[in-house]
Amino acid sequence: MPVFKLCLKIINKNKMVMMVYILAFVMVSFIVRSFNKPSEGLTTYSDTKVSIAIISEEDTPLTKGIETALSRIAEVKSLEGYEDNLKETIQDALYFRALHMVITIPEGFTDAILAGEPMTIKAQSVPGSVESMQVNLLINQYLNLARLYVTADEAIGADALASAIASVMDQPAEVTIINPNPDAVQGDLMPFFFNYLAYSYMFVMILGVSSIMLVFNRKVIKWRNACGPMPSLNMSAQLLLAIAVFAVVVWLILVTLCLVFDSQNAFKTNTLYFMLNAAIFGISVLGLSFLLANLIKGKDASSAVANIITLSTCFLSGVFVPQAFLGEGVLKVASYFPTYWYVKANTQIAVLTRFSFASLKEILGIFLIELGFAAAFIIVSLAVGKRNQLRT
Amino acid sequence: MFAHIFFYRIKSLLRQRSLVFWTLIFPIALATFFKISLGNVMQIDQFEPIDVAVVNNIAYPEFVETMKGLSEGEDRMFTLILGDEQMALNALKEGEVSGVIVPGEPPELIVVKTGIKQSILKNFLDQYAFNQSTISTLAAQYPESIPELMAAMSTSQNYIMETSVTDKPTDPSLVYFYALIAMACLYGSMYGIEEVNRVQANLTTLAARLNVSPVHKLKVFAAGLLAAIVIHYMGLLILLGYMQFGLGVNFGDQFGYVALIVLIGSILGISMGAVISALIKKGEGIKIAVVLLISMLGSFMAGMMIADIKYYIAQKMPILGFINPANLLSDALYALYYYDTHTRLYQNLAGMSAFALIFCTLTYLLIRGRKYASL
């Protein structure tokens, strides 16, 4: 099979460029993984803590009590060492959400609270954020409790007040965490990896297939092949076979990476469907890259086209940012690309708990749509190929 | 002669479609994608009412009433579903609510995962339980002050005065756009590669011919560089204009400074390409790969893909931020937009200028006075 062999040779020669995009996948997966640890089926509840800093202009049992109470819901970070450019440090930290709130307890605060006078704590925050809401809730809770104590006993001292509130806060509400489906995929990592796979898969396929087609579509080679003894059907079949083998190899590499990076979920039924979805997406990507390769007229163009097509479809379809955050109009446009359906199927597979036909129906429908795209791409590219043939 | 070369370089550069694509079309496309996907990112951490199911237990009417009260109006805290335990648990399993509250002493919270919403629910329940136990303790201890306590109980005082750290919106998507501009500036290095290729006799035949012509090499090179800067800078201004007016990216109101940052950025990018082109004698493919790698890696570390990376590097490895031209560029834009003073802006500009100066000097030293026995 000389054509088949040649194709593999061309791919092999261009493998370095494609490796870059596989490596990008590895790197991003690695970073994302280190940012959010894979969640093991949780059994005990723990609060999600917000990050705050406290600037206290006085040091009393009451301010200490507030700090201790806050440490239940927040990680209290120190601003020590940043006094020189405190304002900019706080600005930076709030901008990047490294701190959600910086509270300043003013001088004379304890006396005011003990006297039952109105007093406020200054809080710098990302206005209206969920996290600042949480801190507000706790501080107000603490100080309203203090107010009750002061109302009951005007002579209560700061020490007694703080320890009284501390003992009240010792009996928190009970939280039970249930795992409705221990067999389902846990955490968001697996769906993320599989979504992100779309980017690398498309890029590598477009680059690889176009590198083959650029050779075969070169005029002189085309002419020479046309007068060779091999029937064109045979040649096309070998070409398609080579591209298919290439697609399968890339699929294998990327899927293996996904499984390795979230090995906890690797042997779940959902993961099988993720893999199937990726394979079906691969067929439509194969069709797309075959079509593009027939339209591209140079190496420079192939990398430009690969960039624009891959990035645009991935951004619009929710590969990088979840579909839920994209506008309706954007999603409508995106639905003209197979990537959109691929991501949509992944989103549904992620929450799949039953595998009966009824619950799989919608996902299977999406698979059909993806295959439809593949068929459409291949038909159009055959037409384009025919047109090109007639021209030369 | 200078003007002649300059104009012909402009014409020649404009005809290289791949240069125009990478330095203008690609950043514009990327900016558009960023806008589409990050447009709603501001709302992500904004508080929205938490969906919660409460088991309707008639033994605790007060609690249910409190929950109802907090689930009304525009800026309500919860969106409430009332029902029996089975229904509430089903809603939880289907992901319709963040948690189920079972009233009791103390009330119980049932969740399927942890998160900030679940923590707020727990915090709220704590508050309710603490209030109850405080009241009963105090009422037992100070029976004479029960009326006052009841009065104090019925009001809730706000002890927090929330202020914003600046009057500028802390739009987290800006870092992405600023890093993108940095990338576009550094992509100017492709012009730098081109210009050096055009004057180094050992790189292209065109350069070999140019070198035997009776024009001073510095003059040819300077004219070419100037043409590259003009074209690249024009492209960047188009990009800035498109971002500001087309996409509504906020650069603050000091547009003169933005234009200056980008001008220095353009010179920095082009000189970086020139020095790399002069250093690496191998083919053009390698040169382009090297500058793309530097630009992409630099922009990545300046937060183009994940904004937090920029902050992480600034906190943990500040030196890496200072030697990353892309970070200097995006940080200059960030500092200009976000800070009230210009100190950090000037620091960044100084760093960028230093880089550009070093690159230019190196290029000059590398390409001057070369003699070839044969080519």
Short characterization:
The complex is a heterodimer of chains A (392) and B (375). Chain A is an alpha/beta fold.
Structure characteristics:
heterodimer; A: 392 residues; alpha/beta; abc type-2 transporter like fold; 2 domains; 4-stranded mixed β-sheet; 15 helices; B: 375 residues; D-Maltodextrin-Binding Protein, domain 2; 66% helix; elongated
For the largest beta-sheet of chain B, the strand count, sense and barrel status come to:
4 strands, mixed
Task: Give helix % range of chain A.
Answer: 55-70%
Helical element count of chain B? 16
- Spatial strand sequence of the major β-sheet of chain A: 2-1-3-4
Give the overall shape of chain A, derived from the CA principal axes. Answer: elongated
Largest interface: A-B, 86 and 87 residues
End-to-end separation of chain B: 27 Å
Fold and architecture overview:
The complex is a heterodimer of chains A (392) and B (375). Chain A has 15 helices and five strands. Chain A is of the alpha/beta class and 392 residues long. Chain A folds into two domains: 2-39 and 183-391, no CATH class; 50-168, abc type-2 transporter like domain (abc type-2 transporter like fold, 3-Layer(aba) Sandwich), CATH 3.40.1710.10. Chain A has a four-stranded mixed beta sheet with strand order 2-1-3-4. In chain A, helix 2 (15-35) runs antiparallel to helix 8, helix 2 packs parallel to helix 10 (232-261) and helix 3 packs parallel to helix 7 (158-168). Chain A is elongated, with a radius of gyration of 30 Å. The mean pLDDT of chain A is 87. Chain B has helices at residues 2-14, 17-38, 61-70, 85-93, 116-141, 146-154, 174-186, 189-199, 205-212, 217-247, 255-279, 284-301, 307-316, 318-322, 325-338, 343-367; strands spanning 50-55, 78-83, 99-102, 108-111, 160-163. The interface between A and B is large, with 86 and 87 residues.
